[in-house]
Amino acid sequence: MIQSTTVLTKMLRLLPSSLFDRLAAQYLIDSHASVFKSSNHFTVLLFARVSGLKSTSDIQHPTSSLFSWQHAGGLAPVK
Questions:
Q1: Residue range 27-47, pLDDT digits in tens
Q2: CA 5 – CA 61 distance, rounded (Å)
Q3: Which of helix, strand or coil describes residue 28?
Q4: CA 56 to CA 58: how far, in whole Å?
Q5: What is the Cα–Cα distance from 2 to 14, expressed in whole angstroms?
Q6: Is-contact 38 30, C-beta < 8 A?
Q7: Which residues contact 42 (CB under 8 A, 6 or more apart)?
Q8: How far apart are CA 1 and CA 63, in angstroms?
Q9: At CA 72, angle to CA 67 and CA 76, rounded to 5?
């Protein structure tokens, strides 16, 4: 399998995950998180910025197409 490094991956490597996790713990960022942890939220917002999305609602469209095969007669949704 061919592996490639995306621009997003290269940008995320500039901020070590240990530093990010330490700062998130220091400022209690994840204490009120219900769905996304701060590192995932940061990744999604960075993706939105790099891809030129104008609003947070625009983030849903590129990511929803990844799962559209489930509703097009593919596999049944996991319960």
A1: 999 888 888 888 888 888 888
A2: 23
A3: coil
A4: 5
A5: 23
A6: yes
A7: 20
A8: 24
A9: 70
